[in-house]
Amino acid sequence: MPMHVLVLAGGISHERDISLRSGRRVADGLQAHGVNVSLRDPDASLLSHIRAARPDVVWPALHGASGEDGALRGLLDFIGVPYVGSRSDESRLAWDKPTAKTIVSRVGVPTPVSITLPREAFRELGAVGILEEISEEFSGPLVVKPAQGGSSQGVSIVDDRDKLPRAMVDAYTYWDVALIEQRIVGIEIAVSILDTGDGPVALPPVEIVPLSGVYSYEARYTAGETRFYAPARLDEATLERAKQVALDAHRALGLRHLSRVDLIVDGVGTPWFLEANVMPGLTETSVYPQALEAAGYDAGLAYEALAKAALAG
Amino acid sequence: MHDVSGTNLDPWYDSYAARTAGLAASEVRALFAVASRPEVVSLAGGMPYVSALPKELIQSSLDRVLDEFGPQALQYGSGQGLPQLREQILDVMALEGIRASVDDVVVTTGSQHGLELVTKLFVDPGDVVLAEAPSYVTALVVFRSFQADIEHVITDEHGLVPELLRERIAAIKASGRRIKFLYTIPSYGNPSGVTMSWERRFEILEICRSEGILVLEDDPYGLLWFDAPPPHAMRSIEEEGVVYLGTFSKTLAPGLRVGWVLAPHAIREKLILANEAAVLSPSSFSQYVVSEYLGAADWRGQIDTFRGVYRERRDAMLTALDDYLPDLSWTRPDGGFYVWLTLPEHLDSKAMLPRAVKELVAYTPGTAFYADGDGRHNMRLSFCYPTPEFIREGIRRLSVVINGELELLTTFAQTSPLPVANDPAYFVPPSNLA
Question: Lowest-pLDDT range, B19-33, B158-172, B310-324?
Answer without folding.
Answer: B19-33
